[in-house]
Specification:
Blueprint lengths: L1 H15 L2 H22 L4 H15 L2 H13 L7 H25 L5 H19 L6 H4 L8 H12 L2 H30 L4 H20 L1 H30 L13 H18 L6 H31 L2 H84 L1
Helix pairs in contact: 1-2, 1-3, 1-13, 2-3, 2-6, 4-13, 5-10, 9-12, 9-13, 9-14, 10-12, 11-12, 11-14, 12-13
Length: 402
C-alpha cells in the first residue's frame, strides 16, 4: 500500500497546495480504521485485511509530508540538520514500543494495542493542527507561481523519466530490497541459529541505538563525503553486515553486525532525502519524497520479501551471501554512474568554458576594431583642422596684402 499511497497523496498535496489538509486527513483515516479493528476483528478476515490495507494506504503519506516540512523549515543553509530531527523518530520508536509492549503483555485484551495507537494518533493530530509550518513551500518559502494540471503532471513525469532520477530510484530500490530481506528474514535466521526471544529483542535494541549517533552526526558525515558518497558508504556497510550474517555460527555472533544498521539505514536514507530534494523545484518537493518512500519501503522492501522468500526456502542462509553480492553490485554500479557523470560534467564545463573564451575573444576583437576606428576618426578630424587652419592663414595673408 505504501507503493501507491505515498505518491498519490503527496502529489495531490503538491498539486492543490493542501499539504496540511492532506496530512490531517491521512491521520484521521488511519486513526479511525486502526481503532475499528478490534470491533470488526471477530467478523471476518477479509474485512480486517481491507481495513489494514486502507489504513496503510492513507498513512503512507505522513512521513514524506513531514520530511518535506522539515527540509522546508530548515532551509538550504541548515539542511544538514535533517538527521538530527529524524533522530527523534528513532528515539520515540524505541521508547514507546518498549512501553506499549509491556502494556499489551500485561493486558488480557489484545485490542489495547489499537486503542493506544488511536490515542497516539489523536495527540499527533492536535500537534499538527496547531502547527503553521505544514504549508506549501512554493508560496510561503519560495515565491513560485501556481501551475495548471498539464504543466504539473508533465513536470512530474519528465522528472521521473530523467536519467539521473531513474538511476537514483533504481539504486534506492536495491537498497529497499536489502532492507526487505533483512526485515523479513532476520528473525527466521536467528531462530535457525538457536536464538531466543532475548536475541530478537537485542537485535531490535541494537538497531535502534545504532541509528541515533549516525542520524545525529549525519549532517557532518554527509557534508564531508557528499550524499552520493553516503550511498557508497551504505553499500559497503551492507556488504559487511550481510557477510557477517552469512558466516555467523550462533545467534550472538549476529549482534555486533547490527551496529552497521546505523549506516545502512541512517546514512543511506538521510542521503536519499537530500538527493531527492535537489532533483525537483520546491513545488514538487513533497511528491519526490513520496516517490522515495514508495520506492524504498514499497517496491524495494516488497521485492526483498518476495525474492528473499524464494531464496531462503531453497538456499537458507545463502540468502545473505546473495544479498552481499547485491550490495557489491550497488557499489560498483553507483560508483560507475558517478564517474561517468563527473566526466560528462567535465566535458560540458570545458565546452562551456571554450564558448565563453571564444565569446570573449570575439568581443575583444570588436573592441579593438572599434578603438582603431575611433583613432582613425580622431586623426582624420585633426587633419581637417590643420587644413582649415592653413586655409584661414592664407586668407589672412591675402587680406593683409590688399
Amino acid at each position: 500500500m505504501i507503493l501507491f499511497g505515498a505518491p498519490t497523496f503527496t502529489a495531490i498535496a503538491d498539486r492543490f497546495q493542501i499539504h496540511k489538509m492532506v496530512l490531517l486527513g491521512c491521520v484521521i483515516a488511519g486513526m479511525i480504521t486502526r481503532m475499528g479493528l478490534p470491533i470488526v476483528g471477530s467478523y471476518s478476515f477479509p474485512i480486517v485485511m481491507s481495513l489494514l490495507m486502507f489504513s496503510d494506504y492513507c498513512a503512507a503519506a505522513i512521513n514524506p509530508i513531514l520530511d518535506r516540512t522539515t527540509l522546508a523549515v530548515l532551509g538550504k543553509e541548515r539542511e544538514n540538520y535533517y538527521g538530527r530531527q529524524r533522530m527523534w523518530g528513532t528515539i520515540a520508536w524505541g521508547a514507546i514500543s518498549t512501553a506499549i509492549g509491556s502494556i499489551v503483555e500485561a493486558s488480557d485484551w489484545t485490542g489495547v494495542f489499537f486503542v493506544l495507537h488511536g490515542v497516539t494518533m489523536i495527540l499527533f493530530f492536535v500537534l499538527v493542527y496547531r502547527q503553521s509550518t505544514v504549508t506549501t513551500p512554493s508560496k510561503d518559502l519560495r515565491g513560485e507561481e501556481e501551475v495548471d494540471d498539464l504543466s504539473f503532471w508533465g513536470e512530474v513525469f519528465s522528472i521521473i523519466l530523467n536519467a539521473k532520477a531513474v538511476t537514483f530510484f533504481f539504486t534506492v530500490t536495491l537498497f529497499g530490497l536489502l532492507n526487505g530481506i533483512m526485515g523479513n528474514y532476520l528473525f527466521i535466521h536467528i531462530r535457525s541459529l538457536g536464538g531466543t526471544g532475548t536475541n530478537l529483542g537485542l537485535c531490535l535494541t541494537i538497531q535502534s541505538v545504532s541509528e541515533i549517533p549516525f542520524f545525529l552526526f549525519s549532517g557532518q558525515i554527509i557534508d564531508k563525503i557528499t550524499p552520493q558518497g553516503g550511498f557508497l558508504l551504505a553499500s559497503v556497510a551492507w556488504v559487511f553486515r550481510l557477510l557477517g550474517f552469512y558466516f555467523a555460527r550462533n545467534a550472538f555472533e549476529l549482534l555486533p553486525w547490527e551496529l552497521l544498521h546505523g549506516i545502512t539505514f541512517g546514512i543511506m536514507y538521510t542521503s536519499a532525502v537530500r538527493i531527492a530534494s535537489t532533483m525537483v523545484p520546491p513545488r514538487l518537493s513533497t511528491t519526490i519524497q513520496g516517490l522515495l518512500m514508495a520506492v524504498y519501503f514499497g517496491l524495494g522492501s516488497a521485492s526483498g520479501a518476495a525474492i528473499g522468500g524464494l531464496l531462503y526456502e531453497n538456499h537458507s542462509s545463502k540468502l545473505f551471501l546473495i544479498g552481499a553480492l547485491v550490495a557489491t553490485f550497488i557499489f560498483v554500479f553507483y560508483a560507475a554512474v558517478l564517474f561517468v557523470d563527473r566526466e560528462l560534467r567535465k566535458d560540458y564545463e570545458y565546452s562551456k568554458l571554450q564558448e565563453e573564451v571564444e565569446l570573449e575573444d570575439a568581443f575583444t576583437d570588436e573592441e579593438e576594431e572599434g578603438e582603431v576606428g575611433e583613432v582613425g576618426e580622431e586623426m582624420e578630424g585633426e587633419s581637417l583642422e590643420v587644413i582649415d587652419l592653413k586655409e584661414s592663414s592664407k586668407e589672412e595673408d591675402t587680406i593683409d596684402k590688399v
